[in-house]
Write a structure and sequence with these properties.
Elements lengths: L3 H7 L2 H30 L6 H27 L15 H9 L2 H27 L3 H22 L4 H55 L4 H29 L2 H18 L3 E6 L7 H22 L3 E9 L2 E8 L12 H10 L4 E5 L6 E8 L3 H4 L1
Parallel strand pairs: 1-2
Antiparallel strand pairs: 2-3, 3-5, 4-5
Length: 378
Amino acid sequence: MPTPQSALGRHRPLVYLGASAQLAGLGLLSIVLIPLVAMSVALMVIWVGIPLLFGSLALVRAVSMAQRRLGGRLFGHAVEPPYREVHNHGLMEALQIRLTDPATYRDLLWLLISATLGVAVGISTLVFYLIVPLGLVVSPVIVWTFVAIGSFVLRRDDTDEMAQRIGELSTTRAEAVDAQAAELRRIERDLHDGAQARLVALGLNLGLAEQLMDDDPAGARELISESRRSASAALSDLRALVRGILPPVLADRGLNGGLQALALASPVKMDVDLILVGRAPAPVESAVYFAVAETLANAAKHSGGTSGWIWLRHSDGRLSISVGDNGVGGATMVSGGGLHGIGRRLAAFDGTVNVASPIGGPTIVSMELPCVLSSERI
């Protein structure tokens, strides 16, 4: 962390004047939030306290993040939220996650500090600036010291980061297990309703044809012909099932070829811009292939677009994919939806999915996951 003198060398006094005003404003807001949080806790005995506490903690978090960003600007470092994710959870589960998050209690501690010292520091340094020579020297040092204390109190320590990472891995592992179980159920259902049913019918037809061979050769011939069609249909079902597990195009032509085949098969005209030197691991290729296939299916079904694109690059050990269309937009990631399923599929590989889809379009689905290509492993 830089010293006040080095910070003063990079920042103009007006920056510290603005920081003083922000400290005063955050302190006054903290004074308002303290009784709100207390009232929310007291009202938890009735249902109205639950959403009130969730909302008040969100406001406390916003104040703390503003303090963190102030420290980031003064000390020249990026600020990442230290909180556990609460996306795709119900209100009670999300509230439980926040109440068991250590960062929440550091926020509450800082709320008390901000409501007392923060107001005093902000107002006093603003007053010092009225005494120009004194303010130019004293106020930046006071502001720097107080913001440094805030950065220390609101820091993200290694224990929290490790706990958050363990939680994320546990969640992705559970989702991967659920996705695998769902896939096995799909395969079982397709076999039972498709190829298995056709093969049973084939066996029955051949048995009847055997019985009719002597007395009704024409009927036996018709049953044999029908059996041949059933065998051909069962073979087609099995081939489709195999393609759904591991598309042969991936084994033959790699991810580039697989994505090009998806673009050609899409009812929406897709431009393809793929640069990938080397082969990704087979599970990664399969995950990306089906993620793009699901995205294209969503675009064809819901977007109403006439054109789109598939873009892929590999850099710094990460594979980045962008799929977009010029449709009506409005796509969101909802629990149980197709985009949520894509996120679950890639989360098993520590990947991420982001959706930008304003009303009126375009829709852009960005995917990224760590990946070491075969040429880099040699």
